[in-house]
Design brief:
The protein is mostly helical and 355 residues long. It is 64% helix and 0% strand. α5 runs antiparallel to α6.
Length: 355
């Protein structure tokens, strides 16, 4: 059996398996409060900045309960991990490192991952790549998705371990199947572009495989991974990678990114409304979205509108009129409302964007 088929089987079997919820022992109610408040130990990258803020707030709120739990069970690994995370947030890295060591000694893979990160980046301890790899390997063997992903990237780069594309894909597949959004997105890139694979192709690994890449991107995007949302939206726009154009999916993911405030997606959604691609044509909505995109200061007016079959079409008249009226109402345009996007309209738009 080809390795590609084996890896696909691994992915499906783990992904389809329902995760089991951890429960705290009834004799330690503080531990139940600790985990319920702080969440299950997780050494991965939060899916969004907002998720990061929520995780930090939850961990800090759980600190007292976790400390109480350790009064009952001094070596309880989940409570130690959350307490170590609180110390890390506070910048007490030496204390956090020692607490993570205790949690790792209790068999918690996420704690090994945290220690691996400390050794890899040299925060609070002397950088030590060999020790970092040892910790990531220990955590990966325990099924920690964040460690599997980091170890996969190290194998891709040949940093501290042998450069091994097969091992990279194998580890990343395990992490992606475990539901880790970052691994799903990175593995999708590998299957899409052959990143890290000699010559960008491996028949043994089944790479490239744009359709599988789209599946992986969709899984990560559904969790809110912004990079994956943009990846899958672009794939379904028929960007030349071999995935058939699907305007419904393109609109779905573009709208999701726009709702999350991504400037590139806001302008693209405006273009879709202007052209009536995958949505009912709506010049007013298109113009409003273009204005919203420019307001971010991250969108260049000259590159604001999208392309169809490789070229940017001329402005839709009604959209241009609506665009001029909004700029005029904002005091940024004093020319005629004629649907002609000339230097005056462009000047107002550039002023709005701070260009």
């Amino acid at each position: 059996m080809k390795r590609a088929h084996i890896l696909s089987s691994i992915f499906l079997s783990i992904w389809l398996a329902a995760p089991s919820a951890a429960s705290a022992d009834s004799h330690n109610p503080a531990l139940a409060r600790c985990i319920a408040t702080g969440g299950a130990p997780d050494a991965g990258v939060p899916v969004t900045p907002e998720a990061q803020k929520q995780a930090v707030a939850a961990i800090l709120a759980a600190k007292e309960a976790c400390s109480d739990a350790l009064e009952v069970e001094p070596d309880q690994p989940e409570a130690l991990f959350l307490l170590g995370s609180a110390e890390q947030i506070a910048g007490n890295h030496k204390q956090a490192f020692a607490t993570f060591e205790r949690a790792a000694a209790g068999g918690l893979g996420a704690a090994d991952t945290k220690l691996g990160d400390y050794y890899l980046f040299g925060v609070g301890v002397k950088p030590d790549l060999e020790k970092a790899v040892a910790r990531f390997t220990a955590a990966a063997d325990k099924g920690d998705s964040a460690a599997q992903t980091t170890l996969a990237i190290l194998h891709m780069l040949g940093r501290g371990v042998t450069r091994d594309p097969g091992r990279t894909v194998e580890l990343m597949t395990l992490a992606a199947a475990g539901g880790y959004h970052f691994a799903q997105q990175r593995l999708g890139q590998i299957y899409l572009t052959g990143e890290g694979i000699p010559n960008g192709r491996s028949d043994e690994l089944g790479i490239p495989n744009p359709e599988f890449a789209a599946t992986l991107f969709s899984l990560a995007a559904a969790q809110g991974n912004m990079t994956a949302i943009q990846d899958v939206a672009n794939l379904y726009a028929d960007d030349g990678f071999g995935v058939a154009e699907n305007l419904e999916e393109h609109v779905k993911w573009t709208r999701r990114a726009a709702d999350l405030g991504e400037p590139a997606a806001i302008k693209m959604l405006g273009f879709l409304y202007e052209q009536g691609r995958g949505v009912d044509k709506d010049p007013q909505r298109a113009a409003e979205l273009y204005i919203d995109a420019l307001k971010t200061g991250q969108v260049n007016f000259d590159q604001m509108r999208g392309k169809i079959n490789g070229y940017t079409p001329g402005w839709d008249y009604d959209t241009a009129v609506a665009f001029q009226i909004i700029l005029q109402d904002m005091g940024l345009y004093s020319g005629p409302i004629d649907g002609i996007v000339g230097w005056g309209t462009a000047g107002g738009a550039r002023a709005l964007a701070g260009q």
